[in-house]
Amino acid sequence: MEVRKNSSFYSKAYLYFLMAFAVTVAGFWPSYFSRLGETGPAHHFHGITASLWMLILIIQPLLYRLNKMEVHRMVGRSTFLLVPLVVIGGVLMMHMMLSNPAYGPLAYQLAFIDLFVLIQFVLFYVLAIKNVRDTQYHARYMACTIFGPLIPALTRLLFHVPWVDSFGKSLHVSYLLINVVLLLLIYDDKRKGKIRLPYVLAFGLMVTQQIMMHFASEWDWWRTLMDLFSGVSY
What is residue 145's three-state secondary structure? Predict the structure, then answer.
């Protein structure tokens, strides 16, 4: 059997991204995937673009493992179009949430989380492209794009755990799980001889986000900005 030169680096990454996609589908199953015929175009736009991004995260490491580098690069170039669409989809969801009276003042906190996640997503994507010739950093930065978007999926999924009996508790447990994964990845880097920046940066941003979200709804400038964005005030 031929041994491919790319087979040893993050050889099972596609399986971990597949698990992340499964968590996302499970988390959003009641509110979106089981009601595809009942949701509007904006939700479908967001759902399709976000799902395509997760599918790319599954496909790319598999192509790398199989040494299909030309296809890998072709799929990579498609992200120049997809990433802006993912961001637009996220902004549309922010607007719809802020415009929905059912959320009330909680919308300010959720909008902060959503915007932070979008900025974090773009940051890691840009860093991945900047380091495209350095496989060690490129792969890690691409992996970091998944952590922020997993928060809403995990938060919804954890509602089914008996002792997670409130939205706040579910949200914090979601952050805790992501941070544990990031610490394990940092430890894995250390065990292999070198701690690199991507997972450390992701961990720092996730902790910062978790702390700051408690104060966002109290910032007058933030509430004013979100009211201007949505045309609604609470």
Answer: coil
Rounded to an integer, what distance in angstroms lies between the CA atom of residue 50 and that of residue 135?
A: 24
Residues 109/213, Cβ–Cβ less than 8 Å:
yes
How many C-beta neighbours within 10 Å does residue 193 have?
6
Q: Which residues contact 206 (CB under 8 A, 6 or more apart)?
A: 147, 148, 175, 178, 179, 182
Nearest Cα to 198, choosing from 139, 134, 110, 115?
A: 139
Please report where in the chains the tokens 């680096």 appear, as a residue. 9
Q: Crossing angle of helices 147-157/167-191, nearest 10°?
A: 140
What digits encode the pLDDT tens for the residues 108-149? Answer: 999 999 999 999 999 999 999 999 999 999 999 999 999 999
- The pTM for the full model equals 0.92
Report d(CA 144, CA 76) in Å as an integer: 16
Task: Please state whether 161 falls in left (phi above 0), alpha (psi between -120 and 50) or beta.
Answer: beta
